[in-house]
Design brief:
With 312 residues, this protein is of the alpha+beta class. The protein has 2 domains: 162 residues, Ribosomal Protein S5, domain 2, CATH 3.30.230.10; 129 residues, GHMP kinase, C-terminal domain (Alpha-Beta Plaits, 2-Layer Sandwich). The protein contains 10 helices and 11 strands. Strands 1, 2, 3, 4, 5, 6 and 11 form a 7-stranded mixed β-sheet that branches. The chain binds L-homoserine (HSE).
C-alpha cells in the first residue's frame, strides 16, 4: 500500500490589532487536517473535503493542491498525488481557514517527500494557497500556522520572519459570529492611504508589542494592541463590535480586536479564569442578536503549529 500521511495545522489570529498583515498567532485546539498519498499517473486529485462542501475540488482552484503543485514544480517531481481534506472550522470565519489547510498541505507533503524543505521554506508555498483563496499572498496566517507561536513577518518578498516569545501566561478567547465576511471584500474596504501621524502611532504600537513579548510586560502589551488601520472600517461589519469590546475590557481583557479580516473577534487574558469570564460576557452580549456563535478558549503557546496527526 502506498504511504499515506496526515497533518494538522491550527487556526490563527492574524494582525493581532497592531500589526496589519505582519503579525499572527497560532491557536491550538481548532484547525484543519490534510492527508496525502502518491497516486498513479501525474495528476493532483482531491478525493474528499469533509465539512467543506462549498470549497473547490479542481486542482488549480483549491489551496491545498495549489501549494503541493508549487512544491513539486520546484523539485521537478511529477508523481501523482491524492489529497483528502478535513475542515475543522468554517471558511470565512477570520480564523485563517484557507491558511490552516495550506499550512497542513505544505507540511504533510514535505513529510511525504522526506523533508526537502525546512519549515521556514514551506511558508512561501503556503502563501500561494492564500493567493488562490483570497487574492493576496499574505503570510500573517500561514507563518504561525506552520511555525507555531507568534510570528512577525518583517518582509514578504523575499520572506523574512521572526518568531517572537510568548508571555508566561496568555489565553485567547475566540468568538465567531456566523455572518459572512470575505477576506477579499474586507481588504477592499481598507483605506489606500493613511496619515503619517496615524502610521507613526501604529508602528510605535508594533514596537511596543514586540518589546512587551520580550520583557513579559502585560501593561505594555495591552497598551500596544491598538488598531488604527483596519478596525475603524472593518468593525462596522461586525454587529455590536463596540459593545463586545467594552464587555471584554470591563471583564479584564488585555486586548480585544478583529481576528484577521473578521467576523471572528478575539480577546487576550492573563489567566484561564479571566478568559472564561470574558467569554461568558461576550456571549451574553450577543445573546439578543439572534446570530449563531461559536466560541473557544486556547492557551497561547510559543510552540505548536503544523504537525503530523492521526487520519480522519
Ligand atoms: N492580514 C489579513 C487581512 C488577514 O487582515 O486581510 C486575513 O485573514
Amino acid at each position: 500500500m502506498s504511504k499515506k500521511l496526515c497533518a494538522f495545522a491550527p487556526a490563527t489570529i492574524a494582525n493581532l490589532s497592531c500589526g496589519f498583515d505582519i503579525l499572527g498567532l497560532a491557536l491550538n485546539s481548532v484547525g484543519d487536517r490534510v492527508e496525502v498519498s502518491f497516486a498513479e499517473g501525474t495528476a493532483i486529485t482531491i478525493s474528499e473535503i469533509v465539512n467543506g462542501d462549498n470549497l473547490p475540488k479542481a486542482a488549480e482552484k483549491n489551496c491545498c493542491s495549489v501549494v503541493m503543485q508549487k512544491m513539486r514544480e520546484r523539485l521537478g517531481d511529477t508523481r501523482g498525488i491524492n489529497i483528502r481534506i478535513y475542515k475543522g472550522f468554517q471558511s470565512g470565519s477570520g480564523l485563517g481557514s484557507s491558511s490552516a489547510s495550506s499550512a497542513a498541505a505544505a507540511f504533510v507533503y514535505n513529510e511525504l517527500l522526506d523533508r526537502p524543505f525546512t519549515k521556514e521554506e514551506l511558508v512561501p508555498f503556503a502563501m500561494e494557497g492564500e493567493r488562490v483563496a483570497c487574492g493576496a499572498a499574505h503570510a500573517d496566517n500561514v507563518a504561525p500556522a506552520i511555525l507555531g507561536g507568534i510570528v512577525l513577518v518583517r518582509e514578504h518578498n523575499p520572506i523574512d520572519m521572526v518568531q517572537l516569545p510568548v508571555l508566561d501566561s496568555l489565553y485567547g478567547v475566540l468568538m465567531f459570529p456566523n455572518i459572512k465576511i470575505k477576506t477579499a471584500d474586507a481588504r477592499q474596504m481598507l483605506p489606500e492611504k493613511i496619515k503619517l501621524t496615524t502610521a507613526t502611532k501604529q508602528w510605535a504600537n508594533v514596537g511596543g508589542f514586540v518589546a512587551a513579548l520580550y520583557t513579559n510586560n502585560y501593561d505594555l502589551l495591552s497598551k500596544s494592541m491598538q488598531d488604527l488601520v483596519a478596525e475603524p472600517t472593518r468593525s462596522q461589519l461586525i454587529p455590536k463590535y463596540q459593545d463586545l469590546k467594552k464587555v471584554a475590557e470591563t471583564n479584564g481583557a488585555l486586548a480585544f480586536g478583529i481576528s484577521g479580516s473578521g467576523p471572528s473577534v478575539f480577546a487576550l487574558a492573563k489567566s484561564e479564569e479571566l478568559a472564561k469570564d470574558i467569554q461568558k460576557a461576550m456571549l451574553d452580549c450577543y445573546a439578543d442578536t439572534g446570530i449563531e456563535t461559536m466560541s473557544f478558549i486556547d492557551k497561547i503557546e510559543s510552540k505548536g503549529g503544523a504537525r503530523l496527526s492521526a487520519s480522519f
